[in-house]
Amino acid sequence: MGYVGLPLAAEFARNGFRVTGIDLDPRKVAEISAGKSYIADVPTEEIAGLVRQSLLRASTDYALLAELDTVNICVPTPLRKTKDPDLSYIVSAADQIQKYLHPGMLVILESTTYPGTTEEFILPRLAETGLKVGQDFFLCFSPERVDPGNPQFNTRNIPKIVGGVTPACTELGSLFYQQAMEKVISVSSTKVAEMVKLLENTFRSINIGLANEMALLCDRMKIDVWEVIEAAATKPFGFMPFYPGPGLGGHCIPVDPYYLSWKAKMAGAEARFIELAGQINGAMPHFVVSKIQGALNNRAKSVKGSRIHMLGIAYKRDINDVRESPALDVLALLEGLGARLSYSDPYVPRLQMDGLELESQPVLPSCQNADCVVLITDHSAFDYAAIATHSKLIVDTRNAFRAHRTENIVRI
């Protein structure tokens, strides 16, 4: 019941379905049961109304699966330290569903994974019950397409891809989503649906990697990469602008391409573009720290002992999600160099990571007192004019201070 599960549950409940959210985190269950939302894209008043109408409930008890007609698996799919897929959450969910699988049940995996997962991991477990797929139960893959904080596109109006193990599975899965989604697109198999998600996110990863590499090249050549991209974006065909930054964040884009790369290796192929983009994007926090070091050195200071204040630690603008945020890497690198760290983020009141515990501080006093301010996440709540006026030195990784051309602002 996270960034995928809660909005999906709310959407179906909004359309009159009685929805049960199962999560192992008792805090999430308690919040939903109390009519509260912990996801910014789902208003608390909406959750409260759905709970009052008995259209939405939450529990930690898998046994409730026995009375449900459909199950959507929306669990995390992280990477191990070796960059190999960790499917333990999917396997655990499938094992629980197996216990309560009954005739007529529709099971849909939405968690991003590599092509073949649905048929290789979930189908065999469910088939062990003796029920036959496509006749007794129905199994599909439908990739989540959540973009937290996007005011234009949401669960309802983002087209939904569905691929089933059998044609009957695809038909039933498509019919299910049509009850709550504006547009549903059926594909020929679960593998196609799984690959669709990986292509979407690999596309972004590679193009962001290209933008980041352009930033590195332009930095060496003393060229303004932001001006270059803005000028190139005026071309009305054959170009789509992507922008550099401090690195990739969120659950999908930093993780999903490695799923495809790993699967390619298993098939005896190489995914060279994917791996190169991953290397470039993964190196950006180090580049940001080098820019901070250079900017401080030009003022006869070093990182060690300097007061460095970070603006924004969420992985993207106007959300509270810090998963895989490049800010975490930048903080860790700066701490290793002996910096005195603080941060401001209106969406993340406190942060705990590897022994580092920080609380969000008021913006202006903190920026005034800092030796260097580092803009990582360009939240719209920040008063950039005031920050530019009252900060001694700024390293801008998002071009957020584009309207302020002063010597104290250094951009990547």
In short:
By secondary structure, the protein is of the alpha/beta class. It is 40% helix and 14% strand.
Which band does the percent of strand residues land in?
A: 5-15%
Helix fraction, binned, reads: 40-55%
Strand order, main sheet: write it out: 3-4-5-6-7
> Tell me, what's the shape?
globular
Say how many strands there are: 14
Estimated structural class:
alpha/beta
Structural overview:
The chain has 412 residues and is of the alpha/beta class. 40% of the residues lie in helices and 14% in strands. It has helices at residues 5-14, 26-33, 44-52, 88-100, 117-127, 167-178, 190-221, 225-232, 256-266, 272-297, 326-336, 363-369, 384-390, and strands at 19-22, 56-59, 70-73, 106-109, 138-141, 160-164, 184-187, 307-311, 340-344, 350-353, 356-359, 372-375, 394-396, 409-411. Strands 3-4-5-6-7 form a five-stranded mixed sheet, with helices on both faces. It has a five-stranded parallel sheet with strand order 9-8-12-13-14, sandwiched between helices. α6 links the parallel β6 and β7. α7 (190-221) packs across α9 (256-266), α7 (190-221) packs parallel to α10 (272-297) and α9 (256-266) crosses α10. The chain is globular, with a radius of gyration of 23 Å. It starts with a helix and ends with a strand.
